[in-house]
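Most newcomers find our protein records easier to grasp once they have seen one. Read left to right, the backbone structure tokens trace the chain's path through space. Nothing more is needed to start thinking about how sequence determines fold. An example says more than a description, so a record of this kind follows:
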Amino acid sequence: MLNQKHYIYFIKSGNKHNSPVKIGLAVNPEKRIGELQVGNPELLKLISSIECRSRKHAYGLERWLHKCFSKHHIRGEWFKGNKINIGRAIAGFETDVQLTNQKGRGIHGTKKEAKINILKGQNIALHKTIHKLNQAIDDELDRECLANMPEL
């Protein structure tokens, strides 16, 4: 099937904050959960999935994500769930992807967009610092003016 869609899925095992998360590739993530549930005593839940533009793109993204979370690796394609930051990892991937969470809301991430957001944050912090400095200068000038004012 040439035009078959491929997805990267994030499946959580259990309901705890630190429950393991499986990062894998499938044509149908919902069907994949059913296949995995048979051999898993914990309830599995699809956290999110990423529709990839091709099979090659999907394999590349899957490798990238496994590499990003390699220090949190448990076994196979399972990783420590409380250490997974999907949005940040995707933002580091060289190409656009569309992340859909379990409620169907999209989160768009690109490396360029992540850098822009970081710069925006730095810009806001810089503006706040400049505002505080300007306020401190104004306060000091007011004190100087009051101290040097001639008595009437």
Remarks:
- Residues 100-108 have pLDDT under 50 and may be disordered.
- The helical segments are 29-37, 55-68, 86-91, 111-147.
- Residues 109 and 126 are 25 Å apart (CA to CA).
